[in-house]
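Q: Second attempt. The first request was missing the SMILES, so the protein and adenosine-5'-triphosphate are both included now.
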Amino acid sequence: MTDVATTTLPIIEVKNIGKRYGAINALSGISTSVFAGQVTCVLGDNGAGKSTFIKILAGSHSPSEGELLLDGEPVHFTSPRAALDAGIATVYQDLAVVALMPVWRNFFLGSEITKGWGPLRRLDVAAMKSITKVELANMGIDLRDVDQPIGTLSGGERQCVAIARAVYFGARVLILDEPTAALGVKQSGVVLRYIARSRDKGLGVVFITHNPHHAFPVGDRFLLLNRGTSLGTFEKKDITIGELTSLMAGGAELDSLAHELERELGSNSPLVAELQQEATSDRPAR
Ligand SMILES: Nc1ncnc2c1ncn2[C@@H]1O[C@H](COP(=O)(O)OP(=O)(O)OP(=O)(O)O)[C@@H](O)[C@H]1O
Ligand SMILES: [Mg+2]
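A: Got both inputs this time. The predicted holo structure:
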C-alpha cells in the first residue's frame, strides 16, 4: 500500500474480480484501485484480459466473481449508462463517432443543448459550437473549424476530442482502451499529453495499453495482466521501465525461447542475442 492509498479513498476499487465466458475463464483474481488525479495503467499482451477488465468497470459486463466498490460502497452496474451516470466514462478504441457529422455534433451527441420549449424547442447550434471550441482549446486542441466532419481529423485528434468530451460532461473516471495502439510516435505523444492533462484536472484515469513505453511516463501504478490473471499492481516508485517490459514480455519465457532458438540458429544469431537481452533486461541500472 502506498501513502496515498492509506490516506485517500480510491474512486474505484476492485477485489478479486473474475469473468467467465461459458467454459472460458477470461479473468480471475484481479484486484486494484483507481485514485482521483492519478493514472492507473493496465498492461498485458493480446488476450491477457484487458478489454474484459475494463468492460467490467464500464458496466458492459457484469463480473462472474469478486466485488466492485465505488467510493467505498459496493456497486453493480447493470449497463454502460449506469456506469456513465456514476461518472465513469469509457473511450473505446473504435471510437463511436459519426464520421460525416461535424466535430461539434459529435461532441454533443446524445447530450444536445436545446433552446425554447414545447413545439419551439430546437438545437442551440451556436452554443454547442462555441462550447466545443472553448473546451477543445482548453485541452490544447486548436481546430480551425468545429464545423468540419470529425472523419477529417487524425486518429489522435479524434481520441483527444473524445477525452475532452468526457472531461466536459463531468467524468470522474476516464477509461481509455488502447488509445495509442494505432497511432504513430508524434500522435501518441499528443494523446499521452491529454491523459496527463485529464489527470491534472483530478480525473482518475485508467489507461490500457500493451506498450510499456507509453504507460511508464504517465502512469502512477501499473496493473499487469497475463492470460487472465494478475501479475500484480506496481507503484511507479517500485518498478523500472525495464522490469515492466520484462514482466510483460514474460522474461522467463523469452529466456527459454532464446535457448531453443540458440540450438536451432546458433549462438551468433542476432535474434537470439536480442531475445537474451530482452529476457535479462529486468534489472537495468537506474
Ligand atoms: N465474448 C467473449 N466470449 C468468449 N471469450 C471471450 C469473449 N471476450 C473475450 N474472450 C476471451 O477472453 C480472453 C481475454 O480477452 P480480452 O479481449 O479481454 O483480451 P485483451 O487483453 O483485451 O486482448 P487484446 O490486446 O487482443 O485486445 C481471450 O482469451 C478472449 O478470447
Ligand atoms: Mg482488448
